[in-house]
Predict the 3D structure of the following.
Amino acid sequence: MACIEARGLTKKYRQTVALDGVDITVGEGRILGLIGPNGAGKSTALNAILGLTAYEGELRVLGRNPWTERDRLMRDVCFISDVAVLPRWMRVSQALDYVAGIHPRFDRAKAEAFLARTDIRKTSKVRELSKGMVTQLHLALVMAIDARLLVLDEPTLGLDVLFRKQFYDSLLNDYFDHTRTIVVTTHQVEEVQYILTDLMFINRGRIVLDCSMEAFENRYVELLVGPDRVAEARALGPIHERQMFGRTLLLFDGVTRDHLAPLGEVRTPSIADLFVALIGGSGAAGAPGAAS
Amino acid sequence: MNTLAESVPDAAPEIQTAAAAATHPVRPFLWSVRRELWETRSIYVAPLIAAGVFLFGCLVSARRVGPWLRHMDASVQSRAAAAYAPPFFGDLVILGTALVVAVFYCLGALHNERRDRSILFWKSLPVSDLTTVAAKAAIPLVVLPIVTLAIALVTHLIVVGLDTAVLASAGLTPQGVMHLSLLDQLGMLIYGVFTLTLWHAPIYAWFLLVSVWARRAPFLWAFGLPIAATIFENVAFGTSVVGNFFWKRLMGGLDAAFGATHHGGGEIIMPQIDPVGFFGNPGLWVGFVVAAAMLAGCVWLRRYREPV
């Protein structure tokens, strides 16, 4: 059974269409990166998956309808978001007590062991913690929950580079075990590239790219070529090109490395580069990676 | 900064049994109520402060009233004593405080979580909107009345003790001054809190509904709409049916619970509890239906609610 199965997922606001008939399938044990410019529909898609917003179309998450079965679904799903903030009045100890009280799959000892390795004191209120510490606390709560799907919506926004690095390290080393599914959206694409198994680009409410990271690495190739051979390279039909230190960087879709290697330097493009190639030209503002 | 990236011990087997307990539907409700008490400590702090201020006032006045009664002419002494610091006044102060706390609690209950965006955190946990609304409605309808009653009962007993001492110092006995036995007084207090809470149920439900519905300024909407309706009716039709309706709902609880308390002649007549009349009052039952409908509206609306 797929973890997330969406057919024709649509969400309209009064003026705009946030999601325009999107199909999404995420298998269990995958780590999907959902990448798109601001206002592309990423958060709307995640909110629909979490049962936080009504939608049109078909959507099953772990076999359930998130809109009508949110509370039941949330036993198996966890959510960390830049905007889903912990209540500022709450004490750390109260957060532990409360989640332990209401969540059937919460392992309090695990969360406490986690917190013991941070500078967070249990008597502190959330409002007294730094932004990085609040995220650590939220992560400690979530990682102690034996969930099947973890949804991360810009989880590291506004954190310094140490916290960001640590966040993803913790996630991979302590949490991910190949049976759990993770869906993450972020603007800091380069930080997640090495952890993803699947990649999805979304722009203006539509899916622009949907492939596994293996397919991504096989399909897209970047060639750095000198001015003398650039015409030859262009003849192979690059999908994007830009100048770099007097040489030309060409991005190819479906051209083998063997073909390109004689012309210059061949490498796997970064997700950010591909994003710019596929979406940057279509007039969308705020390409990922630009902010970092 | 310590690193989180080290290994974490695996889940202990006893977690499984704890998990079974946590799936019981009452558990999330009780923890949600507890959560409300963590967030809004004024639920018990404000009535405590009201009781404290009242008791302190009684203490100060006791030093004054004792000599005053002693030097009074015997013919008016007992009337004057009856008018002095009746313990029921303290009950009203505490109940009134609780009413104000309840109103402000309800107005913020489903609004603040949207304003501080924590609603996304609460909704990411396996607690249904029904449980959440039930827990929030339980504060003014169950928790606050019990807390208030406990504080009022203790205060009442202390004031009675204090009054007895003051009257004794003037050579009077409480039996000669007060019309009700202590047991009757406490019974009346319990009955009063119970009936007043039931009578006010639709008011609390209304404030909760405004709290979940209004995008901003729930206070203005909650009071503004009834006031606007009253003024409109008054200007347009020259009648005041709507205004009387709201006023009766707000202030008529004691009348409904204790029967008619207004008698002519200036004689102080102690009110009689009237449970048959109270529960036979159609207004009470209409209020229940309206309250239930509004609470159902809260559950339905909260599902659609996002941060504001």
